[in-house]
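Working notes for the structural subgroup meeting. M.R. asked for a predicted model of this chain before we commit to crystallization trials. I am recording the input and output together here so anyone reviewing the notebook later can reproduce the run.

Input as submitted:
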Amino acid sequence: MKISTKGRYAIRLMIDLAEHNNGEYITLMDIAERQEISEKYLESIVSVLSKSNLLISLRGKGGGYKLAKDPECYTVGSILRLTEGSLAPVSCLEGEINNCNRASHCQTLQMWEGLNKLVNDYFDGITIADLVKESDYTDNYII
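Returned structure, recorded in token form:
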């Protein structure tokens, strides 16, 4: 599994919004500058996050973006699944139902299911608030 820049940048964007949360909307230009990410690329990411109600957006003067909920409510896993589509290590585990015709006698399925559970549990156990509190994060998680 390889997490794309879209997934990694989405997490950085969410951390930035959490760190600079003062009740005001934060412009994409400010986030792009702080995170050293193209504003154009961030537009595609905020589109996905806004459509999924993770962000609140406001157009025009004084507009920008802010988190729809507290940072504790966002897990890294939920953000990555939105931006990456799936965290499954193999294609047969991408959907809710495994439609592989070999599933009933696959000798490696349990192994892949175990890895899938580990990855999802790990990322679902980390919130944006955890990442904002970097010292707490490094104490509690393997990096």
